[in-house]
Amino acid sequence: MEILDLSQKAPVDFIRLGSVSLKDVADLSLRPRNIGLHEAGFEELGYADEQNFVAEVGKQRLDPIRLTPINETTQVLALDTSSIELGETDAGLLCAVRGTIVWKDRNGYRYTRYGPFIFHVTEANKEYLYNGLRQIYFGTNDAAPVPSVLWMPGRLRNILERWLQGQLSQNCENSILLWDGSLTAWTIDSPVALISEMLRTARGNGNVVLAISKKTKFVVSGQRVADLIDDRDAPCLLDLDEIIRREYGSYLCFFGRVYAAKFTPSCFSFRLDIDKSVPGEAGIDAVQKLIGNDLVVESYPETLRLAHILSKFSASEVIGMQRLVTENYDIRVVSRPDVRQVLFGPYGGGRSSSLGGEGLL
Q1: Number of helices and strands (H, E) in the chain?
Q2: pLDDT(191) > 60
Q3: Looking at CB atoms within 10 Å, which of 64, 234, 295, 331 has the fewest?
Q4: ∠310-315-320 over CA atoms, to 5°?
Q5: What is the spatial distance between Cα 225 and Cα 55, in angstroms, rounded to a whole number?
Q6: Which residues pair with 87 in a beta bridge?
Q7: Which one, of 188, 179, 202, 183, lies nearest residue 144 by Cα?
Q8: d(C-alpha 110, C-alpha 222), whole Å
Q9: Which of 83, 93, 70 is nearest to 291 (CA)?
């Protein structure tokens, strides 16, 4: 497979709208995010894609579905995205988003990164940015409720992620597509029509979409999903679909058949969603092709692990983006005391959760 060329639309519009938003920082002051030189990554402000779920099995027995790796050469592609706050301004905040696609074929692992795309988000421009990007990438003219400025980095990241998912569905054939998260649509950032169309397109090109959740709040008879499968049964799946749909199908839209998955003996199991419109046997075969073609460590596919790592921002990248903005736009860098350190001293935590503090430029 040749390197995917998905740069015709997304970078242009993300760069264009980001550049427009950065013009607003002129004559403002910037309080850079407080970072340390040895930090390799950051937690981002996000939002939960699941509620607290508790489903009862009762006396129903859950038998594991044993998996046998299928070594038939099949291309595996995975994608992930990330967002981060760079600092506060007088009017809002600076943030950046980035996405990465990783694929595995007979020649090994390759990747393409998209971004970083830098935005200055304010109360004045957040509606323009949010609904403008939704119109371009979701194809909707309906104005959606605009989130608060603090939630905007995660929403911008989500738009980029959905676009990349759609591009893989359109441009790949006879492949396994790995999404980070679930195939449940119930938020405004996971529109039912959009998810449905992406999955339909993927199936039409012979692809199978699998979604893997690193964390899930599903609890079955008082047990976490990660505790449902014994190491002796790995690799295997546990079919939770009937249980979950019975409890939550009335108000959640499940596009995937829900499983607990353990691909190798380890302490980890994950929630796995398989596109429900793919016939059951074909879906299981896709999982067996996944573990037969991709490296799996601690029960997690290497393609998805690399996509996550390569989409995250390092401390040096954050410093570089801060410097880029300060050197190319007429913005003043100011520092202010870290309130947690002032109030609590060494008990204030290793890293402040606020955007304040002295930046490294």
Answers
A1: 9, 18
A2: yes
A3: 295
A4: 95
A5: 11
A6: 32, 94
A7: 188
A8: 41
A9: 70
Most distant CA pair in the chain: distance in Å?
67
Q: Is 323 helix (H, G, I), strand (E, B) or coil?
A: helix
Can you spell out the DSSP letters for 270-299?
EEEEEETTS-HHHHHHHHHHHHHHS-EETT
Phi, psi of 100 (to 5 degrees): -140, 135
In 3D, which of 295, 288, 278, 274 has the Cα closest to residue 105? 295
* Amino acid type, 195: I
Return the structure tokens found at 182. 């679930």
**Residue count of the chain:** 361
CB 269 within 8 A of CB 233: no
Mean pLDDT of the chain: 81
93 in Cβ contact with 149 (< 8 Å): yes
Give per-residue pLDDT as tens, 78-87.
Answer: 999 999 999 9
pLDDT tens-digit readout, 241-260: 887 777 666 667 889 999 98
Domain boundaries, the chain: 10-348
> Model pTM?
0.84
Q: What is the mean pLDDT of residues 122-143?
A: 85
Summarize pLDDT for 87-99 with one digit per residue, the tens: 998 889 999 999 9
CB neighbours of residue 302 within 10 Å: 16
Strand partners, 143: none
At 76, list the tokens: 């595996």
